[in-house]
User: What shape does this take?
Amino acid sequence: MDNTRLQKVGRLIQKDMGLILQQEALALFEGAMITVTSVRVSADLSVARIYVSIFPLKSKTVDDIVKLLEEKKILLRMKLAQKVKHQLRIVPHISFFLDDSLDYIENIDNLLK
Assistant: This one.
């Protein structure tokens, strides 16, 4: 499939999932700040890998929030389907991954100092 189409679908999912996580953060994730950093969509548009950056606010750790995301991914996919129902025929299966690129950049920055 055309790479441009994959990028457009990825950006659409990134924008809409970011809004969903922002709206549902207090109810589902105890107020943790979750940012969607990137989305990679498979060539057949059946799978979307969503990379998130997490800042926990209460007693939950980052690993706890990732587990909560995995547990709630069916609900989140349903909410995503409601938002993109006019743009996409089939909503891809979603899976969440922790984006550690910011930690990597910070580590390299500290090593260079």
